[in-house]
Specification:
Helix 1 runs parallel beside helix 2, helix 1 runs parallel beside helix 12 and helix 5 runs parallel beside helix 7. 44% of the residues lie in helices and 15% in strands. The two termini are 13 Å apart. With 252 residues, the chain is α/β, with parallel strands linked by helices. Bound molecules: phosphoenolpyruvate (PEP).
């Protein structure tokens, strides 16, 4: 069984001051838990990363970004490189979140380029996959998620897979208050693990953490996190409230 990871995706919320305050509160809360049964990651907006990185310097709470450019540097207006994220103190980066796929037209191919670039530069990708409601109703969700896994991880070596985390986030469960049932999530995690084992040894596939994301909150976390094959959670809305986020961490 893998050690759990609880990751907070703050999305486009909180200014720098508010972000630092939340990072401080989460860090203090995690320290108070003494020996939490999970690793903890927060992913503030780009603008707040550097200040949050300073705030977390002596804390076990890790820092991640919500996206990264697939290129190293140059004429890519508005983009942020892996090197910039590393210099701000990031260890992780979320890649291919469904909101980026939906609003910014990211494809499995773009996701793959970003995953490879992040790994090449020493960042740990949290690669998001998940089906839409229509795809679930049409019963093609395994085909969709399977393709997201194989395309997103194309040309990623077995060594590099050790630094990859997958987040299974059914699109219909994100920000809707309707979470997948523990059985639905568990079944998909086992499916994803089987897909991974086609790309690498079973030992490596077992060690890749697969998080569930989609309306995880302080009330449902315990049940979801106890389900088979679930190595943690990617939390959106509930990660903006320190108390709720700490309750989710304690649920591990
Ligand atoms: C997310 O955006 O990754 C997410 C899971 O959001 P929420 O927890 O708000 O559904």
């Amino acid at each position: 069984m893998n050690r759990k990871l609880i990751a907070g995706n703050w999305k486009m919320n909180l200014n720098v001051k508010e972000s630092v305050h939340l990072a401080k509160t989460v860090a203090a809360g995690v320290s108070n838990l003494k020996d939490p049964n999970a690793d903890v990651l927060i992913c503030p907006a780009f603008l707040s990363l550097e200040q949050c990185g300073k705030t977390l310097k002596d804390s076990p709470v890790m820092l991640g970004a919500q996206d990264v450019c697939a290129n190293d540097e140059g004429a890519y207006t508005g983009e942020i490189s892996s090197a910039m994220l590393l210099s701000a103190g990031c260890e992780f980066v979320i890649i291919g979140h469904s909101e980026r796929r939906k609003y910014y037209c990211e494809t499995n191919e773009t996701v793959n380029l970003k995953v490879k670039k992040a790994l090449e530069r020493g960042l740990k990708p949290v690669m998001c996959v998940g089906e839409t409601l229509q795809e679930r109703q049409d019963e093609i969700f395994e085909a969709i998620v399977g393709e997201q896994i194989t395309e997103g991880l194309k040309e990623v070596s077995e060594d590099q897979l050790n630094f990859v985390t997958i987040a299974y986030e059914p699109v219909w469960a994100i920000g809707t208050g309707v979470n997948a049932t523990p059985k639905q999530a568990s079944d998909m995690h086992l499916f994803i693990r089987r897909k991974l084992s086609q790309l690498c040894s079973s030992g490596t596939a077992e060690a890749v953490r697969i998080l569930y994301g989609g309306s995880v909150n302080a009330k449902n976390a315990k049940e979801i996190l106890a389900a088979k094959g679930i190595d943690g959670a990617l939390v959106g809305g509930a990660s903006l409230k320190a108390e709720d986020f700490l309750t989710i961490i304690s649920a591990c």
